[in-house]
Design brief:
Layout: E1 19-22, H1 37-55, H2 59-64, E2 68-79, E3 88-98, E4 102-111, E5 114-127, E6 132-133, H3 138-151, E7 156-157
């Protein structure tokens, strides 16, 4: 496995969505650093904000009313520096691939210019009633493609 090289926040696309969060007491372990699973909780919150603020899709409506799930089917992380209680961090999701029934993204977590962690996430779209895979809905696909284009050249997209 090749370990990613940290990138400064300013090296990310200027058009990318950034969710600003503050590391809370409850996010930390007894050593005062972010307990690693909490980065995934924060990442999911940032993705919910991305849907609402940049994609124009109500995350809760998608899941609740439309019955379309967007659960992680792959989640991996590279931790570069510890985050600590009180840190102001920016979470920047970048779309890596949009497939038939899934999409992949890299989520960069920075404190200032310093990259603390990078999450590799793959999300499958599912019918929540049957708990089966379904194609990425057309409106979500269009929004993801638009956001990806705003952030720079896409890497891999399939119908």
């Amino acid at each position: 496995m090749t370990r990613p090289t940290p990138v400064p926040a300013s090296a990310l696309p200027s058009a990318a969505f950034r969710a600003a969060l503050r590391v809370r007491f409850g996010d930390c372990d007894p050593a005062g650093i972010v307990f690693f699973p909490n980065w995934f909780v924060m990442a999911n919150a940032a993705i919910e904000d991305l849907f609402r603020e940049r994609l124009g899709i109500d995350f809760h409506h998608l899941h609740g009313t439309r019955g379309i799930g967007t659960g992680f089917v792959h989640a991996a992380a590279t931790f570069m520096r510890p985050g600590a209680m009180g840190d102001e961090v920016a979470l920047t999701p970048l779309i890596r691939r949009i497939g038939g029934a899934s999409y992949a993204l890299d989520l960069h977590i920075h404190r200032g210019e310093e990259e603390l962690a990078r999450l590799d996430l793959v999300t499958a779209t599912t019918d929540l009633a049957s708990r089966t895979s379904v194609p990425v809905p057309p409106d979500l696909r269009a929004a993801l493609l638009r956001y990806q284009a705003e952030c720079g050249p896409g890497q891999e997209n399939t119908p």
